[in-house]
Amino acid sequence: MNKKILLSLLCTLALASLAPVEAQNSYSFTFSSPSMADGRYYIARQFRDEFRLLDSANAAGGTVVFAAKRPIDKGVYVLMKDRKTKLFDFIVDDSRTFSVTFDEKHTNAAMKVRGSIANELMYTYMAKQDWANEQARAVGEKRKDKARADEAQRDMNALSDEMKRFEEEYMKQNSNYLFTRLVSMFGNIDVPRAIPAGSSDTNLRDWQARYVRTHYWDNVDLSDHSLIYTPQLFEKMNYYFFGILYYQDADTITKYAEMVLDKVVNDSTMLRYFMDFILPKYERSTKNIGWDQVFVNLVEDYYLPGKCPWATKAEVFNKRQTVDFLKQSLIGAMGQELVMADTNQSDNPQDWISSHALPQKYVMLWFWDPDCNHCKKQTAELIVLYDSLSRAGNKIFEVYAVGYESDVDKWKRYVREHKLPFINVGGPNVNIDYQEAYNVHGAPTMIILNADRQIIMNKTLATKNVLPFIEQYEKKHPEQANRAPSRWQLEGIRRAK
User: Fold this and answer.
1) If pLDDT is split at 50, 70 and 90, which confidence band does 496 have?
2) How far apart are the C-alpha atoms of 312 and 214, rounded to whole Å?
3) Contact 249/330 with Cβ under 8 angstroms?
4) ∠127-129-135 over CA atoms, to 5°?
5) pLDDT band at 106 (very low <50, low <70, confident <90, very high)
6) Shortest CA distance to 372 belongs to which of 460, 286, 445, 443?
7) How many CB atoms lie within 10 A of CB 78?
8) Distances (CA, A) of 387 to 382, 420, 467, 495
9) Pick from 170, 246, 404, 429: CA 20 to 30 A from residue 265's CA?
10) Rounded CA separation 280/276 (Å)
11) If you average pLDDT over every residue of the chain, what do you get?
């Protein structure tokens, strides 16, 4: 079992027995340390990736006391300093009156608790885990000496056996505590070591990866609302969506995201817990390919059909507008034709240049700004690549470089002085609003179109990755590798002649 997960898990210990009713209506927590500076301290609860402050008190003489005549829920709490600095976790469970003495580094072995068996058990377990981690590091150092490799392996096996016995005995002795259920929920799942008989799969690693994506949430009781105030649910959610699913394509991410969301779709508390965290990340990512498609899918499948009851009409309306806007520049969408004036800045549309009617199979729309350092650096790199392909007679893509600059003279001067060999267009003479058509929020922005002028890339690639991307695209779409000229290419060829 992953030690890091267990370390955080066991901060959520809770006793099954309840204190008398009178004791639930007040609390008194005392924290002491010789290293505690005077000043304001806080207790808080974690909600997703933030801390919500619940109480504060002044420390004096190395002690701070939080006391109030009001109820406080069971759960995981945090002692904090300066509203920002987390010192350590503690739990409210079997007692509402206890004290904790700690050292400067908040080491678990040094925690001394009076008045709360639950906290004693937690720090005892954590201290044992700390010890095991230290032993594992020592074994790791021993492994560096090849002559002691066998000895190191024996030591590691012995350590693993000892910790397994410790955990089993600990769980058995404390079977009435809630933490055993939490360990079961948030521990690593058991992944089969072999593909089941009768399966058509042949690649074990791919099969196991799908198994993890499918069964990752099997043990988690998502009907338990108290989990939203634990760091464990946040860590598990964050790792699933932005770890396990990180490199998957948009369809795969959507499939597994909705598998989880459908488990809580009738529970607005849990659905909102997930949705409010993951959805903005998919919408605002500027680097991850296909994440805008995931945002569109989730909004269309949950917000627009009315499955998110907390959402106001204004919020739904805004999301609908965002979806309509993003759909124009999603991978697979038809790229809208730009017709713009070049550096001659002719007012006659007959002189303007089309982004689509070019003889090359692929077209890179390159939105850049001469005042942007990143733009200037990558534009210089693109020139090197472009020229090398031209000299080799293998210029499979054209660069339709749009000067993203309102000062036309500055843009023209930069093009001239740096001898940009691309199709250089810019200025106010343009047939449509390209910022809206291609979701251009700033420079640089790169869009790559295929022979049919469909969008195949809507994120800015490093120059060194442009050709590898096209090669991979043609492997996935072999029909594009030997593509006959499209009507766009034929028109471009006619114009070129």
Assistant:
1) low
2) 32
3) no
4) 105
5) very high
6) 443
7) 20
8) 8, 10, 14, 22
9) 246
10) 7
11) 89
Rounded to whole angstroms, the maximal C-alpha distance in the chain is 92
Cα three-residue angle 121-230-80, rounded to 5 degrees: 80
Average pLDDT of the segment spanning 1-14: 42
The first and second tokens of residue 493, run together, are 């060829």
Residues counted in the chain: 497
Amino acid occupying residue 439? N
pLDDT in tens, 155-210: 999 999 999 899 888 888 887 766 667 777 887 788 998 999 988 888 999 999 99
Task: Judge contact between 338 and 378, C-beta under 8 A.
Answer: no
pTM: 0.79
Q: Quick one: pLDDT at residue 43?
A: 97
Q: What's residue 153's pLDDT?
A: 92
CA-CA distance, 421 to 383, in Å (whole number)?
Answer: 7
What pLDDT shows up at residue 489?
A: 73
pLDDT digits 0-9 by tens, 437-451: 898 888 999 999 999
Cβ density class 136-150: b for 16+ within 10 Å, e for less: eeebeeeeeeeeeee
- Contact criterion met (CB below 8 Å) for 225 and 217: no
**Three-state secondary structure of the chain:** CCHHHHHHHHHHCCCCCCCCHHHHHCEEEEEECCCCCCEEEEEEEEECCEEEEEEEEEEECCEEEEEECCCCCCEEEEEEECCCEEEEEEEECCCCEEEEECCCCCCHHHCEEECCHHHHHHHHHHHHHHHHHHHHHHHHHHHCCHHHHHHHHHHHHHHHHHHHHHHHHHHHHCCCCCHHHHHHHHCCCCCCCCCCCCCCCCCHHHHHHHHHHHHCCCCCCCCCHHHHHCHHHHHHHHHHHHHHCCCCCHHHHHHHHHHHHCCCCCCHHHHHHHHHHHHHHHHHCCCCCCHHHHHHHHHHHHHCCCCCCCCCHHHHHHHHHHHHHHHCCCCCCECCCCEEEECCCCCCHHHCEECCCCCCCEEEEEEECCCCHHHHHHHHHHHHHHHHHHHCCCCCEEEEEEECCCCHHHHHHHHHHCCCCCEEEEEEEECCCHHHHCCCCCCCEEEEECCCCEEEECCCCCHHHHHHHHHHHHHHCHHHCCCCCCHHHHHHHHHHC
Q: 404 pLDDT band (50/70/90 cuts)?
A: confident
Measuring CA to CA, which residue among 417, 419, 400, 414 is closest to residue 342? 400
CB atoms within 10 A of CB 182: 24
Q: Which residue is it, tokens 């204190």?
A: 19
Dist. CA 183–CA 444, nearest whole Å: 47
Q: What's the average model confidence in pLDDT over 323-330?
A: 91
